[in-house]
Amino acid sequence: DNVRQELLALVKDLPSLLSEIAAGAGALSEAIELYQACVEFVCESSAELVVPLLRHVGKRGNTTVYEWRTGLQPLRVERPAAEEVPEPPKEDTVRTSWSPRTLAAHGGSPKRCRGGRLSTVCGTGWGGGTTSVSELWRSLPCSPPARPAVPEGVACGSEALTLLENTETRNQFIDELMELELFLSQRLAEMEEEADIVAVSQFQLAPAALQGQSSARLGSLLGSARALLGQLCTRSMQHLFMILASPR
Question: Where is the composition biased (Basic and acidic residues) (predicted)?
């Protein structure tokens, strides 16, 4: 009945869907530790944690970007206000609303602006009537004195979004998930190549966590990683993320 409103309503289901994906990341802890053990064994001196964001989501869930950045839960979360742009009126309705007297009073004929709207003034900034207040605010110069400092412990703006809502951290999550998937796939291929004497002899000195894994178990972990990746990267999820980023 109202396609636009129904699509926006679908976005409201995103938090629960993303929470399920975050819960699925928790099931990858064994695969992450296996990856960590392999990196430390091969590189010998590397103490850097692999896939840190994926590890964080698996342990603490789909937290805010603020908690990921600082390691602390925010005392208050001030999410960005959703800007709901009203449905533009049909062209026929707009045309009938402009009488000759109205046009004369506004100084001429209407001109078409962005979004199919009609206005006597186009692109004139504050007086145009076609630019929202939020757009005007975003167009102002962003200097340090222009906006007050955020109190400590308050998550606002993009840091108030969850990790899987925020575009940057969501992309990092997907990258790390693909990295883990690639490691599991490569390790499984190595284990199934029984004729590779070099690989077998190399892992004779590996930690027990690496030697004790079977092909069947690795295949199960690989399947979990691929399922989670497929759940997050479906076409419908991509559309929902696009709608979330632009309610218009």
Answer: 81-94
Q: What are phi and psi of 107, to 5 degrees?
A: 85, 30
Where are the chain's structural domains?
A: 1-80+152-245
Cα torsion at 123, 124, 126, 131 (round to 10°)? -10
> Position of tokens 């869930």?
61
**Cα 160 to Cα 77, 88, 104, distances in angstroms:** 6, 30, 48
The model's pTM is 0.69
Contact residues for 240 (Cβ-Cβ < 8 A; gap 6+): 10, 11, 14
> Taking the mean position of all CA atoms in its chain, how far away is CA 20?
14
- Contact between 62 and 19 under an 8 Å Cβ cutoff? The reply is yes
